[in-house]
Prior knowledge:
Elements: H1 2-10, E1 16-19, E2 30-33, H2 39-48, E3 53-55, H3 64-74, H4 96-105, E4 108-110, H5 112-115, E5 124-127, H6 133-151, E6 157-161, E7 164-168, H7 174-186, E8 197-201, E9 215-216, H8 218-227, E10 229-235, E11 240-241, H9 244-254, E12 257-261
Parallel strand pairs: 1-2, 3-4, 8-10, 9-11, 10-12
Antiparallel strand pairs: 5-12, 6-7, 6-8
Helix pairs in contact: 3-4, 7-8, 8-9
Amino acid sequence: MPHVVQAALEVGYKVQLLALTPRPYLAKIKMVEAKLDNPLGIIWSLKVFRTTHIAFAGGIHLPDKARQGLIRFANGNGAPVGAGGSGPVGDAELAAIGSVLKKMTGADLIGVHELSPDLLAAEGTIAGPALADEALVAASYTLSVARAIGGLDIGQAAVASGRRVLAVEDIGGTDALIARVGELRRTGLAGDGATPMVLAKAMKPQQPAFADLPAIGPDTVTHCAAAGISVIAVEAGRSLVLQRAALVEAAARHGVSVIGIKLADA
């Protein structure tokens, strides 16, 4: 978050931060507490600030009630939610919120990578030891699995060993996925073979680029090392590498390889 704010300030934007969760004070910017159950309040804050561009930064977990409220707001309060109006919607359907923000404020939605292109993962080795050909094949396969579950709007990440899928990300997020794999390893169900375990993260095929790009940081490396995952693969050009210097240091310390891979359908 501070990196993105600084990037916006450096290119000349006046910045307002609408904080959905508690945030430490950041100098030179206006901070406003925003509540998802009050979308009109968010619209009002954006209009009063005369917002010209909106960038989403940071992760947030949305319970079903909040999802239903947001999609109803996006569809004009009263439109059905979910398939056939039967229940909560997935992350991809929440992209409709972007169109509403544009219509009601006139502001353009931009991705954090547009403000700070250096956050994007490049193709090739990002940190840690270089991978042998066999490990590269395994990493590419795991990344394809991550893309496949993204197509079902389940999550953005998967863990595999060779061509054996061990676990995929659900609403618990990446940290919960890594923790589950660590438990599988501790009980002897995974991670005891010669093939390394790989965590892969890819952008969902149907998601807009202005929000929720796959991201990794130094904590991802540390958690993977604790779970016995020795390779992290991300979709090059469509994933964010946060706190890069600290991530490189953590990867070197734990011997975790971090690599960016292009997907053929990108």
